[in-house]
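Recap from last week: sequence in, structure out.
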Amino acid sequence: MSKPYLIRTSLEELLGDLVEGDPFPPERELAARFGVARETVRQALHELLVEGRIERRGRGTVVAKSKLTQPLSLRSYTEGALRMGRKPGRILVSWDDVAAPADLAAALSVADGAPVMRLERILLADGQRIGLENTHLPLHRFGGFRETFDPTTSLYAAIRATGVEFGSATERIETVLASPREAGLLESTTAMPMLRLHRRSLDTDGTPIEVVHALYRGDRVAFEATLTDGD
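Predicted structure tokens:
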């Protein structure tokens, strides 16, 4: 077996004896323990970091929390976090009205250039930054949120409180790298793999509710779906 594989296996075994928050041995110590070059250890540590098994904390490294698993469903991020016993939170980045370009206008069934509400928020789980969410809503339908909605709370709960019910949604997820701005907001780096989610939600009458573009840290979030036989 190759040395990188053996080192990775040894680090996996080491992780099995530790719990969340425990300090993880530094690169120099691991290289001396296993008698390999620091570059070999560095690569294995980088893989564990990308996978969300360990995380940097200050000048050291600790065992990370398990990833927040989000359901691919019409449930909100808040519901997914609470289901895993995590405390959801949000930080408002921007909230403004913009003229909808042609593709967004078509997705929201409004006229080209019509004003739409754009809400950008950082998503938190137990205080950790896990995602950056950009939501577009038809202004003629949800303009009243300016006076009633607290952007640090659940948007889906606020939408449902108006009497609107979610009927269906189309989602696409792809792997991307963050821009410098996105990485900064997520307290990450441009080298960390991210998961970008695109969602268009409709109400029970088939009328568009929202278009969402969200970026999630690949080391802190995973998605799951429940599948059934369609026959």
